[in-house]
Structures are given as structure tokens and as C-alpha cells.
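In response to reviewer comment 3 from the previous cycle, which asked for concrete evidence that the modeling workflow produces usable outputs, we include below a single protein chain processed end to end. The sequence was submitted unchanged, and the resulting C-alpha cells are shown without manual editing.
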Amino acid sequence: MKDEKNFSSPQFLLPSSLLHLLQLASPALPVGAYSYSDGLELLVETGVVNNQEHLWQWLEQELRYGAIRLEAAVMIRAYQSVVSGNVQALGYWNAWLTAAKETAELRSQSWQMGNSLMRLLLDLSPSPTTPEILPIQDLASATGTPCNYAIAFGLAAAYWQIDLTGCVLGYLHSWASNLINAGVKLIPLGQTVGQQLLLDLSVNLTRCTQDVLSLDDEQLSNCGWGLAIASMAHETQYTRLFRS
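The workflow returned the following C-alpha cells.
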């Protein structure tokens, strides 16, 4: 009889950082992400996005040039600020990202989700994974109020020692999952189509992750006028299922 491996032994346990990443990127995270469509509701209403191919093209272009790429890059800087103990930089990047938001709706969304995540982290009261990282209460004060979601996500990822590459990929994957779920409801699309879209975006998510990890501060930019116009028009849309 062959020897059976004991999968409860330490060498087969999942690293806690992976479990933390799954929790942080989960749609069950109580930050209200499900209530936003990032302007997609307006695009469906006007017929700009009305099928599987159109939705894929919109998401692909956002990953190449849009605001989500910029958010992920700033999230990296929040992560690095926490790891290095540079609380001034944490506050700086939070203010920087606020100023980069093109519309009031997008800014309010980022603030609401960020504040919700910060409150959750304070309630969970996680212990620092290394002695160099400041207590969560000090870091929350350093970000300032309101706190953008990318900043809070980066802070949490650094606190839990999540690998930076995995952190960025998880952030982008969470964004894509939320918008695909919104598209499934709005267009509408079937659940299987939604999962196929997410699978088809795998290469794009990986490429975007690699790109933002290599950006210098002077290269931070985005071409998000399509999202900005959709967001502004969504504010006065007659019927809405989503907040933004």
C-alpha cells in the first residue's frame, strides 16, 4: 500500500497571506462594491454596451488606459508607504487620488468604499505582521478622512503581508468581477457568459498587473474620459439600479 500524504501537516497548509487576499478581494467584503456600476448602467441605457463583446471591449480598454489602472498604481504606493512606515506618504497619496477623480460620483464611491473598509479593519483589529508596521489605528489616522478605497486596500494588504503582485491582481480581479456582475444584471447576460468574460480577461488582468508594478510616479496617468462622461450622465439618469 502506498503511503498516504497527510494534508493536515504544516507543509500542506495554505499560507495565511493567500487566505487574507481571498478575503480582501471577496465580493462578500462588506464595502458596498455591488451597489456601483462605474457608469456601466448609463452605457447600457444608451446602447453603448449591449452585449458580451461590447462589455469585454469596455473592460479591456479600462484595463489598458482607464482609471482602474491608475487606482492600482496608487494602491501600490499606499502598500509601500505602510511597509516603510512613511505615514506622510500615505496621507499624500490619499489626497492625490482624491484630486485625480474626475466626477463627484466616482469620488464619493471611492470614499464610501474606503471608509467602509477602514472601519472594518479597525473593528477586526488585526495585529501587525511585523514589528516595523504601525498599529492600524495610527495608519488610519495618517490616511486622513475620507479615505479612498485603493488606499485602504493597499493598507490592509501590507498589514497582512500579502505579496504585492498578488495584491494588485486581486484588486483588479475584484473590480472586474463587480462590473461583470453588473453587466450580467443590466444587459442582461447569463451567469455562464459572465464567467466566460472573467476567464477571457485573465491575460488582460495579468498584463495590467505587470504594467502598473513597473510605473514610476511621473508615469501615473489615465485616459478615462469615457468613464467620466458616463459617470456624470449617470447622476441624472431617470431610472437607476446602481448608485454610480
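The chain has a mean pLDDT of 90. We consider this sufficient to address the reviewer's concern, and the full set will be provided in the supplementary archive.
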